[in-house]
Specification:
The complex is a heterodimer of chains A (about 500) and B (about 200).
Chain A lengths: L1 H10 L2 H9 L3 E6 L5 E3 L1 H6 L10 H6 L3 H17 L3 E7 L7 E11 L5 E10 L1 H23 L3 E6 L4 E4 L1 H7 L3 H4 L12 H15 L9 E6 L5 E13 L2 E10 L1 H56 L6 H31 L4 E5 H12 L9 E5 L6 E5 H18 L7 E8 L4 E8 L6 H6 L15 H11 L4 E5 L5 E8 L11
Parallel strand pairs in A: 12-14
Antiparallel strand pairs in A: 1-2, 1-5, 3-4, 4-5, 6-7, 6-10, 8-9, 9-10, 11-13, 14-15, 15-17, 16-17
Helix pairs in contact in A: 10-11, 12-13, 13-15
Chain B lengths: L5 E5 L3 H13 L3 E5 L2 H8 L5 E6 L7 H10 L6 E5 L4 H9 L4 E4 L4 H15 L2 H16 L3 H11 L4 H8 L3 H15 L4 H10 L6
Helix pairs in contact in B: 4-10, 7-9, 8-9
Classes of the chains: A alpha+beta (about 500), B alpha/beta (about 200).
């Protein structure tokens, strides 16, 4: 009872203590003069000590995990000597299996002359909190390990574009350590023009809520720390946490993917080109044979007629007339064969689609200009992004472009200066003009008139069908094709193609 | 001009047959027309001496098969093969199979009639042909190594560019060698060069 009285003096009475006990908060009090330790009932329950058992500092320490004992002793000593707060978290009953967490807090109480008299405080049950924390930590580390394992880089930014998180895949991809990335504006990872515009993109989204990339994903260009750029697929998610808006970006490096794609495409179009070339070669050879028949017949009729007219005596006029008629028939037959050549080109149902001119030119370039860099040919594409969309049969137009590129390369084989420029511009509201300029030997005035004629060629191994077929293709698209001599003395070939109408196209901006 | 000499025209194209009939008739030949090698071979044993003028590309039996058949039958008829323009490998092969000559379509009437007359005159007279062959062989022997390589290339039907690549020299240089070959061989055209070379038994490969 004396104990209760003593405690009531300290804690404001029995009722208060009972109330505190009921709340689950334990009380402890260490008398520094006697070394006696007082524990309230709640404290005993929290430390698994029976109500009747005598408590002491030694008993308290014995309840702790071995590592905690020494630290507790030291901390207690510091509190006594320096008056610092005592605050410890213990896992009790670890040995017996039924462990739980408690937190002991306390402070120093001095006597009237300022000497340390006692250390007292409370003990709290923090098991729930600890379990929650542990679960949270487990989830956190689980999530972390997932994010570290997936090959995609992950970057979290706030609504001002400042990077908050930067995964290790992102470190590898951009060559930038997390420690440097965090706090920087994400536009550091972009080349121009996105770099300068990104803050505006965020602003626009904030004010309009219009999604251009969030939840859609698209292919953009990334910039590494060393300044090099690479194609990447970016998908962005949005989240709200604590009233703040964050954006999480997942980045996949497409360098390898694009290389594979390009290689595949190259192989495919090469295969296509070869098969088409051989088809054209076969056709040309069959055509040459077919054409030689009527031509030989015409020559035979003419020469035979001449012989008849030159012969002594009266010429057999009816025979000569018959021969002239037949010669004329054969001339018409030859004309029909030529017409069939044109038909051969346009017979295939053309499949016109909206295509990107830049893509067509680049692909045709990849095919027609292979080896150009080795020949020290300087290539320049001056394509106006405002006239990129054309309505064409991709295969046919690529054929035309490949043909022009190859011609240009051949024409420059012996030139000291080798430059090839492919450019696009608006020809009119609904037509786009494409030009292919070279610094080759060009063509003479007499050649100019024949350039687009079937079977006309200045090349030793040429068939003389390339340009005439090209022009047929362009005309079948409703365009025109012509050639000019440019300032360098080389040739400039120009062709026009129908621009695709704007509406109904996916917004790619 | 050997009047009433026979020419047997074999071509699957009716207009070619008709126009050759007209031309050669006007030139004074007796002309018989056949629409294919098979129908010619059927009639062949009953035919008198004459010159065979056959297209090379025909459905069914082509000109090459015809040459093989006639060789197997030990036919004495000289054969002139009509080839497409620039079909050198085919012409070379025809000559090797025993064709007397070849003409490229379309052809000059003088060239065709000249070839037919030569064939008719030399067809029976082997000694004259041998003397000519010896003469050509001497011309071939006068060629330098490079010139001979160029000749071989031309016989294989290669272009100047291709020959240049094969021997690692520039096409311009090949042009010079080619001109030398033409001069030394006394040939006025590529087809004449081919005829001469094949007669001298030059192997293209």
């Amino acid at each position: 009872m004396t104990e209760v009285d003593g405690n009531s003096a300290r804690f404001g009475g029995l009722f208060l203590q009972c109330g505190v006990d009921e709340s689950g908060i334990g009380i402890w009090d260490l008398d520094l003069s006697t070394g006696d330790l007082f524990w309230s009932d709640a404290t005993r329950r929290l430390f698994d000590v029976p109500l009747h058992e005598a408590v002491s500092l030694e008993l308290f320490l014995s309840k702790l995990a071995p590592d905690d004992r020494e630290r507790t002793r030291t901390a207690l000593q510091r509190t006594i000597e320096g008056g610092s707060k005592f605050d410890f978290q213990y896992c009790i009953g670890e040995q017996s299996g039924g462990s739980h967490w408690v937190r002991a807090r306390g402070g120093l109480v001095r006597n009237a002359d300022g000497a340390p008299a006692r250390v007292c405080g409370v003990v709290l049950d923090i098991d729930d909190q600890k379990q929650l924390e542990a679960a949270l930590r487990a989830r956190e580390s689980h999530l972390h390990s997932i994010l570290e394992t997936i090959p995609d880089a992950m970057i979290v930014i706030d609504e001002h574009g400042i990077m908050q998180r930067f995964s290790s895949a992102a470190e590898r991809l951009f060559g930038l350590p997390e420690s440097e990335a965090i706090g920087l504006n994400v536009n550091t990872l972009m080349p121009e023009p996105d770099r300068g515009r990104h803050d505006g993109y965020l602003q626009r989204y904030k004010s309009s809520g219009e999604r251009h990339i969030i939840g859609i994903g698209r292919i953009v260009t990334g910039k590494r720390r060393d300044g090099s750029t690479f194609p990447m697929h970016l998908s962005v998610g949005e989240m709200n946490a604590g009233g703040e808006r964050y954006f999480t970006g997942f980045v996949r490096d497409l360098t390898e993917h694009q290389k594979t794609q390009a290689k595949l495409q190259e192989l495919q179009s090469e295969l296509f080109h070869v098969s088409r070339l051989s088809a054209m070669g076969e056709m040309a050879s069959a055509l040459a044979h077919e054409l030689s028949q009527p031509l030989a017949a015409i020559s035979n009729y003419m020469k035979g007629s001449r012989r008849l007219l030159e012969s002594n005596g009266t010429p057999d006029i009816p025979r000569v007339e018959m021969a002239l008629d037949r010669a004329a028939e054969q001339a018409l037959r030859a004309g029909q064969i030529i017409r069939r050549l044109r038909d051969f080109v346009s017979r295939r149902e053309s499949e016109k689609r909206v295509e990107s001119l830049a893509k067509l030119v680049e692909e045709a370039g990849a095919l027609g200009l292979s080896g150009a860099r080795e020949q020290n040919v300087m290539l320049r594409f001056q394509l106006d992004p405002d006239c990129d969309r054309v309505l064409v049969d991709r295969v046919q137009i690529q054929q035309v472009l490949v043909n022009l590129f190859r011609n240009a390369l051949e024409a420059m084989a012996d030139s000291p200066r080798r430059e090839l420029v492919a450019a696009s511009t608006h020809a009119s509201d609904d037509m786009i003009e494409i030009s292919v300029m070279d610094t080759g030997h060009g063509f003479s005035d007499t050649t100019a008139g024949n350039l687009f004629q079937t079977f006309f060629t200045t090349k030793e191994t040429g068939m003389g069908v390339g340009l005439s077929i090209s022009r047929s293709i362009v005309e079948a698209h409703g365009g025109r094709m012509w050639a000019e001599t440019n300032e360098s003395g080389g040739a400039t070939f120009r062709l026009t193609l129908p621009a695709a109408p704007d509406e109904g196209l996916p917004d790619v901006a | 001009m050997s009047h009433n000499a026979h020419v047997y025209v074999i071509d699957d194209d009716p207009s070619m047959r008709d126009s050759l009939d007209f031309l050669l008739g006007a030139a004074g030949f007796d002309v018989s027309l056949f629409d294919g090698a098979t129908s010619f071979l059927k009639a062949h044993t009953d035919l008198g001496f004459g010159c065979v003028l056959s297209d090379v590309r025909m459905p069914g039996m082509d000109g090459m098969d015809l040459l093989r058949q006639l060789k197997a039958k030990a036919s004495a008829l000289p054969v002139i093969i009509m080839t497409g323009h620039g079909d050198i490998p085919l012409a070379v092969e025809a000559m090797k199979l025993g064709a007397f000559d070849f003409v490229e379509k379309p052809f000059e009437d003088e060239r065709l009639i000249g070839a037919i007359n030569t064939a008719l005159q030399q067809g029976g007279d082997k000694t004259k042909g041998d003397a000519l062959t010896r003469d050509i062989a001497a011309r071939v022997a006068s060629l330098s190594l490079r010139e001979r390589q160029v000749l071989d290339g031309l016989l294989a039907g290669l272009s100047n560019k291709q020959i240049a690549r094969d021997h690692g020299i520039s096409p311009r240089t090949i042009e010079v060698y080619r001109a030398n070959v033409m001069t030394k061989m006394q040939a006025r055209s590529l087809s004449e060069l081919i005829r001469l070379a094949v007669k001298a038994n030059i192997q293209a490969d």
